[in-house]
Write a structure and sequence with these properties.
With 296 residues, this protein is α+β, with helices and mostly antiparallel strands. The protein is built from ten helices and five strands, in the order H-H-H-H-H-H-H-H-E-E-E-H-E-E-H.
Length: 296
């Protein structure tokens, strides 16, 4: 979608991977993030993830022969500047010693990336690709894909960088969320390009691990129906304001316990279903979150 299209059209309510995952986890969490837009504290993991993603995007903007490890680490400081420019309040909230530590950690992650892939040997088709597609029932999917690779023979690979580590007790849930996100992108590409992604690749930079998955067409068609059902449930809740909490072990990482009825809190008055619903997650600069989402 081009930048000169009307804002109202670009702001049409849509489903992103993060918000779909939020609703599956807890409808009230979805409301707090997507409708109430309640602020949440920025974590060091989010900042580090944002910087690494920005540096990798810039790395692949260079000619392949220039994508050397020593070049990659020089991109960290400019990447930090880009992140702070998009979120100016971060500049005053991050102590100098924390900034230095985060940049060192980002450089270490970029250096470790070269143990997983050699970026001098291929050119991705796109990085930080915005995707938006309307499904047959009117559900609008929207998100940003870290990287799309297309082989000379036409095979399509979707790549997502994971820069954090989930706590051991939440590792399985973090991986489930990560694959949910990748299948979301696979459906979006299937419908927008008419091509079934051959491989979904998760690169865990902190762990030095690669997780590859090849989805089948029938599997993605079933997942597409799941996304449609999620959006119908969101719209139904939006019409009545009935976004109920769904307590789980993930609640310990939630920033909104004080407003949650499951913990004796009271949500703010429901503002109503917005005509222009700004999606968080893939439409924001900061990457990753606390707890189970720190692997995102």
């Amino acid at each position: 979608m081009s930048d000169d299209e009307p804002l109202a059209q670009r702001s049409r309510p849509a489903l992103s991977p993060s918000r779909a995952s939020d609703f599956k986890q807890c409808p009230l969490l979805y409301r707090f993030r997507a409708i109430d837009r309640l602020p949440e504290p920025t974590s060091a993991a989010q900042l580090r993830g944002s910087v690494v993603h920005a540096a990798l995007e810039q790395l692949y903007a260079l000619p392949a022969t220039d994508r050397r490890p020593e070049t990659a680490v020089t991109l960290v400081a400019p990447a930090w500047d880009r992140v702070v420019a998009a979120e100016p309040e971060l500049a005053s909230s991050i102590a100098p010693e924390l900034r230095a530590a985060l940049l060192d950690e980002a450089r270490a992650l970029l250096s470790g990336y070269y143990r997983l892939e050699d970026p001098t040997r291929f050119d991705p088709q796109s990085c930080e690709q915005r995707v938006e597609v309307e499904l047959s029932d009117g559900t609008l999917l929207r998100g940003f894909i870290d990287r799309i690779d297309v082989a000379a023979t036409g095979e399509l690979r979707v790549v997502d960088y994971k820069t954090g580590k989930a706590p051991p007790e939440a590792r399985a849930l973090a991986e489930f969320k990560a694959m949910f996100q990748m299948k979301f992108y696979a459906v979006a590409l299937l419908r927008s390009r008419g091509v079934l992604p051959t491989r979904l690749r998760l690169l865990y930079l902190a762990d030095g691990e690669i997780l590859d998955y090849s989805p089948g067409l029938d599997e993605l068609l079933r997942f597409e129906k799941t996304l449609m059902a999620i959006w119908r449930a969101i719209q139904s809740a939006g019409a009545t304001g009935d976004f109920r909490p769904s307590p789980s072990r993930l609640c310990q990482w939630c920033a909104h316990q004080s407003r949650c009825p499951a913990f004796g809190g009271t949500p703010p008055p429901y503002p109503g279903w917005p005509e222009e619903l700004q999606e968080g997650g893939e439409d924001t600069v900061l990457r990753a979150g606390p707890g189970a989402e720190s692997a995102a």
